């Protein structure tokens, strides 16, 4: 893995703010001509610093008004059961993030749904039926203060 220099970090920072930045504008922002900038960008992509590009969608415009965080607990800590749980979670689009965590819970899930009624149905019919789940504690987001938009690049 190569060490990132100031220009590499500037490219990454600029792309986190606007992933659709044309190469000419990107090169101008980081103080390079287009060809060396494009070469660096390709290298950052191939070396895995850039995993992909995507659009940030407006959750409310898509009528996804509720964000919930669910702490999921298992009573039996079996590797095969955890693997099944993790595989099933991958296929559930309402679960937008899943983390295996330390502490009193085994997993922390972030879930988006239309409303509280939909969340109740999701809890009953989906979340509580996942392999290994014995307890779920929910926390509802009242207001989003900061959105996951970028990583610190220093």
From TrEMBL:
Alphabetical list of InterPro entries matching this protein: ArsR-like_HTH, AsnC-type_HTH_dom, Dimeric_a/b-barrel, Tscrpt_reg_AsnC-like, Tscrpt_reg_AsnC/Lrp_C, WH-like_DNA-bd_sf, WH_DNA-bd_sf
GO BP, one annotated term: response to amino acid
Stored SUPFAM superfamilies: Dimeric alpha+beta barrel (SSF54909), Winged helix' DNA-binding domain (SSF46785)
Keywords: DNA-binding, Transcription, Transcription regulation
The HTH asnC-type domain, residue ranges: 4-67
GO molecular function terms noted in the UniProt entry: sequence-specific DNA binding
GO cellular component: cytosol
PANTHER family tied to this protein: LEUCINE-RESPONSIVE REGULATORY PROTEIN, TRANSCRIPTIONAL REGULATORY PROTEIN
Protein name per Swiss-Prot or TrEMBL: AsnC family transcriptional regulator
